[in-house]
Write a structure and sequence with these properties.
Blueprint: H1 2-5, E1 9-11, H2 14-17, E2 37-42, H3 47-51, E3 61-65, E4 71-74, E5 80-84, E6 90-94
Antiparallel strand pairs: 1-4, 2-3, 2-5, 5-6
């Protein structure tokens, strides 16, 4: 919602617009629904990199839960990218004018 409020746009459905390389949303009846994870790459020097420094791999990757079928297409004004899934879907962004 923040992205759209800042003039950004959305990927309406990741699976149909981006593809199936990474599963971002399992069917709710899937037994592994609550434990599903996928990797993200975290940009160095971002708040996310700072917060999870002890949990990231040496390549800057984290495993995160995933319960979404929409994503950021174009990032809104004043927002900065900080994490992506391997399929290119933006998984994290922030506003650098706010203190981390």
């Amino acid at each position: 919602m923040l992205n759209v409020m800042r003039g950004g746009t959305l990927i309406g459905d990741i699976e149909s617009e981006v593809g199936h390389k990474i599963v971002h949303l399992l069917d709710g009846s899937d037994p592994s629904y609550d434990s599903h994870r996928h990797p993200i790459h975290v940009a160095p020097g971002t708040p996310l990199a700072e917060w999870f420094a002890g949990d990231m791999s040496s390549s800057g990757e984290l495993l995160v839960n995933s319960y979404h079928h929409q994503g950021v297409k174009e990032l809104g004004n004043g927002l900065v990218e900080m994490a992506w899934a391997p399929d290119g879907v933006l998984e994290g962004f922030y506003d650098p004018s706010y203190d981390s």
